UniProtKB/TrEMBL annotation:
Pfam families assigned: HSP70 (PF00012)
GO MF annotation, one: ATP-dependent protein folding chaperone
Name of the protein this chain belongs to: Hsp70 family protein
Keywords: ATP-binding, Chaperone, Nucleotide-binding
Superkingdom of this protein's organism: Bacteria
Family matches, as Gene3D superfamilies: 3.30.420.40, Actin, Chain A, domain 4
Stored InterPro entries: ATPase_NBD, Hsp_70_fam
Amino acid sequence: ATRHAAPRRRPDVTAVAVPAHWSAGAVAALRAQAPHLHVVSDATAALTAVAAGPGLPSRGVVVLCDVGASGTSITLADAGDDLAVIGQTVRCDEFSGDLVDQALLRHVVDGLDADPAGTSAVASLIDLRAACRAAKERLSAATATALAGPHTPIRVTRAELQSLIAGPLDRLVVAVLDVLHRHRIAPAALAAVVTVGGGARIPLVTQRLSEALRCPVITAPQAQAAAAIGAELIAVRAVAFEAPTELAPAAATMLAPAATPLAWSAEECSMPTTSATKFALPRGDAARPEVHFGHETAAEEPRRRRSPMWLAGARAWPRSRWPVWC
């Protein structure tokens, strides 16, 4: 699924979107055989892809119609509960891409004069069927197109295609209403209808669903690859959630150089140890002890003259209250 969604980029993870109508046993068997794969439901994957873009409501019930080649899968989801699936996916075989191709092929063959049972006609039918499929895709945007016939080009209009698929499409609408009735959900309670798959690009599909259900119809931009895109998103998010978080080492800068260890934390102090000198505090009118310095004697500074006021204040104090300098 990852390679289909982004073919030019090498995938970091591998995701597989399986049909939503598969049984739980079939899904478990696939996961057991390939534990390295991220196996998800194509309904959940398609809703994830649509939710990644704008337009999807945040509340209410959403109906997903996946119009594939062999049938249409109908899934209900709760937009207010992170698009949780409601009930089981229902498969409708009344409307599919292959049935549309066959209806258009019969319409084209009926206008030919050649016998379709002939040998040469059988080989031409294979090419004609591929041409009808391409014409169906072009009629999603154009009102008329031409396809290569056995002898001359054949012109087909959108109106002709719509008349061919009107009956099968009505049966698909009935199947959607039946799913809503089983879950006791009124059509008026729907928030939106989401269409994915190759058949979702047919304009009549959007028109009929909108008329019958009376709610907006959202078609994925890449409807045919919506499941693959959503599977890739789910796988990438799962890997990002499981990846451990580590602190990055701090980069050294010139403004903040690494601090050097302090001397006493790395080596023993090499200074000689000597016994401390004990001093006795003066008592009463005893003379102040002399102070001896062990370092080099600095040049004696000239003594500054004391002001008379300071001397007078000193004589006014008794000797016992003189401050002691150590």
